[in-house]
Amino acid sequence: MLKIFIDFDGTISKGDIGYKLFLHFAGEPTHKIVENYLCGTLNAIEFYHELTKACGSVKYEDFISFIDEQEIDVTFIDFLNFCKIKNQNDNVIEIFIVSDGFDLYIERILKKYQIKNLKFFANKLKILDNGTLVAEFPYTDEECTRCACCKRNRLLTLSSDEDIIVYIGNGFSDQCAVNFADIVFARDKLQTYCQKKNISYYLYQNFIDIINRLEEILKRKRIRKRQQAEFNRREVFTSG
Questions:
Q1: Which fold does the domain 2-14+72-239 belong to in CATH?
Q2: Confidence at 240, pLDDT banded by 50, 70, 90
């Protein structure tokens, strides 16, 4: 079975919604906080705590209004339909969204596009009665400072030895996970990382490119696993 893990912000959505959200409600301090995160001064959880604090008091209706303006790449719906057709006779594809963004906007946006029964894993965000934003991190990992929602762990725990692992992403928080994926679709910062680390990948512009490539892959009699990814996965479990 192909287990497909997909980033949300900037991959499924048009642009990084998390970044746009904090820039909208926190303003200029967002830039410095992001800079501190990218250079390693803040870990991922500290990063989000700083951002939510910088937002001050947020009106729920303003938050929802902002989220409702956000859009996804509509070719993602074509991709879901492609996977559904492939699964009509045999369950050959399973899809998960793995995001270092927040459930509050992911769930609402998926509902907006009538996308149902799609499993996603993300950080949690609450708006208290006084307008304070509170972030929670149910999928963190003590050893991982790059992500608050550890995508690597989701990938490993939701896959078996028999599965071919596919990862689709574009950004900084995807970099750890692709080291454990057999097939990688990358662009932007993730493409640069894959080139630097000599990780084989397919460049994509939208999900039509991914559909076409997966169509070719599924026609093969045998889909090969990426040797280094297999080794990395085995090393995690043996060292643990």
A1: Rossmann fold (3.40.50)
A2: low
